[in-house]
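Quick question, first post here. What does this chain look like in 3D?
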Amino acid sequence: MKKAFVLTLSLLVACMVSNGQEKKDTSFKFTVIKELPHTSVKDQYRSGTCWSFAGASFIESELLRTGKPEVDLSEMYLVSNCYKDKADRYVRMQGNTNFGGGGLLHDILYVMKNYGLAPESAYPGLNYGEKKHVHGEVDNLLKSMVTAVVQNKNRKISTSWSLAFDKSVEAYFGDFPAEFKYEGKKYSPKTFLTDFCGNLNPNDYVEITSFTHHPFYSQFILEVPDNWLWEKMYNVQLNDMIQVIDNALANGYTVAWAADVSERGFATSQKGVAVVPVVNKADMTDAEISKWEKLNENEKDRELYKLSKPGKEKEITQEMRQEAFDSQETTDDHAMHIIGLAKDQNGTTYYKIKNSWGPYNSYDGYFYASIPYIRYKTTAIMVHKNAVPADLRKKLGI
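> Answer (accepted):
Ran it through. Tokens below.
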């Protein structure tokens, strides 16, 4: 999930330009029809760690769902633990695997199982003179370290490289907290998970995707670079995947969402929408059709993506999303958190999404994704297993 980092930079520029100015009204008018409990919007800033922000947000909602008090989890506790284990795998694989700050949603489950959780107050991960997350330097430094180990000309890897690497991680993110106080009680990361988080079991969560290059209703390893853990996902038909999202929201479960956000229909402006527009000549007058047909391709493209108001969208099929994935038009760009449903002024349904780019748009950091966009550009979702409809759960053997 790396393109999100580039998009974040452009969003920061847009936010700085509009700083102090009144937010402009949007041409899309949304009415929220369902919104599940969730925590406030956070800002990953200049880091490629969307997976940790989406994953932490999702777990925070799960804690609220199970009756626990609101907590702000440390995203950098997840990132730094994964960085250490990625380094070990990268060296053991002699550099033939992915290494970087990116990850997938299941990485938070991996950290929970192996290292527990920590609140933001115990591990803010800002040990390098910045007030927000700026990872360009640390990402490059850590990558150069593991590259140097793999390229070692001594034909023998030293016994101290991992210690040097771990100390570098801690130099930037902070020493790992063996023990910390939270709301007057002492915890370790593992007891924070078991005692504060109670019955939250990382084994109760599943990832679901929908692609035709593997059999449906089985599991496979999704072939994206940031799947460094080689975790398997359940593969279902497209309509089933959408049904899982809808069933989850209907029954009080939020959804962690991984998707491609490089599409022009993903509006990074003040509009706060993600759509897959298509020309709707049926609603044009003869004069409008004549004007449209006189435009060149670039002009048509600009006109189509003005997104000045809700319009007709493409009908997304299983074949279309597969073609986009095979051609790498759909890649694993960004992770977010689906927390509700809304309708626009025409009565069209959208999913309400919590993002991790701060309050960058007219909706204070939330945006609305259309059903066609979700169908087309979703790479995977993560939900509690009980959010999966019972018949599908049985079919998948969950």
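The chain has 13 helices and twelve strands.
The longest helix spans residues 75-92.
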